[in-house]
Design brief:
The chain is 45% helix and 13% strand. The chain has 148 residues and is of the alpha/beta class. The protein has a single domain (20-144), classed as Rhodanese-like domain (Oxidized Rhodanese, domain 1), CATH 3.40.250.10. The strands form 2 sheets. It has a 5-stranded parallel beta sheet with strand order 1-6-5-2-4, with helices on both faces. Strands 3-7 form a two-stranded antiparallel sheet. The protein is globular and about 35 Å long. The termini are far apart.
Amino acid sequence: MRPLLLLATLMWLVPALLPPPAAAAERGAVMGPAEANASAATGSIMLIDIRHPSEWHETGIATPARTITMHDPKGPKAFLDAVVRAVNGDMSRHVALIRASGVRSTWAQRFLAARGFRQVYNVKEGMLGTGSRPGWIRRGLPVQPYRP
């Protein structure tokens, strides 16, 4: 009987020790392209395309996205400063990052979260998709030409 009592106690206690779901969403959260498009359209998130400018020229950018390259020649600090300026210093602003396929946006998501951003989402499929995930462009979501 004691193992069952222990198991029941752990099942009750462990969830109480875990962070609430909202805290889990603050770092490492993933958002699909359609959700990112809808959320950016309503203003509930700021969608930021963090690819290289040559990629913006090649494919265009998601219509609701701002462009802030993570490849700033002045380094990661300049990228951070540009994102902080874009959100007017509001580090609690919901921000979604999009790249080509979502791999490097994971690094940028962690980078921003480690520097105080509390609501950073990764549009994991990216603009071009990966594997069975079609991405922004192949889903037919709005794209506009990049104009510097």
